[in-house]
Amino acid sequence: MAENAYYTLLTSLPHIDSLFNSKITPISRIQLDRRLAMLSTADRETLVKVEQLVHWSHLGEEIKEAYLINLAERLLQELDSPDLKALVNWRLDMRTIAAALRRKANGIQAPTLAKWSYGSRYAYIRHNWNHPTLGLQHAFPWIPVAVECLSKKDYLTLEKTVMEAVWNKLNELGARHRFDFEAVVIYLLRWNLVARWTSYNGEQAVVRFNELTQQALGEFAHQLPGSPD
Questions:
Q1: Most buried among 41, 65, 96, 123, by the most CB within 10 A?
Q2: What is the model's pTM?
Q3: Which residues, in sequence order, are CB contacts of 210 under 8 Å at separation 6+?
Q4: Contacts of 18 (CB under 8 A, 6+ apart)
Q5: Element (DSSP H or E) covering residue 9
């Protein structure tokens, strides 16, 4: 797709300037999808795959882990953009970390299987299971806050912390992409965050966190020693 086509699309979309101060999404999903129809078929297919992988809770509880792993592996092979590959791996790492912290908070020991989750750091996490922050506090500065929230069962603050980390990551990536396909992906992911936040209340945050951490491990959860699931 030509660069000027991305410019036309992106300049047609309303600006998203805030996450937690937003009351509604700046554009409805129906209107957004109509604008995204301006993309080429190849770009639309890639966009759907990225959104599915990053927001796989939308796929429903029946989704199989094998499908998700296959989706991730195929997508990472198909993506030409190093920044989008890094973003996908980062999000998968976040899900694995969130699941690991929750299980550590429940007193569950480190997994014994070499392949126990998704992303690029599951082996490192297993090796550093006994570290309070899994040894990842520098790469993921939100982890100490997450550990404290888990100890206090403050799931709403935890969800806000994780969402803010994703928001900041997208802003960081967005500073390098203004009118290209990466910018379109970033816009859609930021829109999804605003849609999620504006639909929340405290009880939903607790339910959602439990769902996400369970989905992040999926069948792997049953392979963890001492798992109550």
A1: 96
A2: 0.80
A3: none
A4: none
A5: helix 3-11
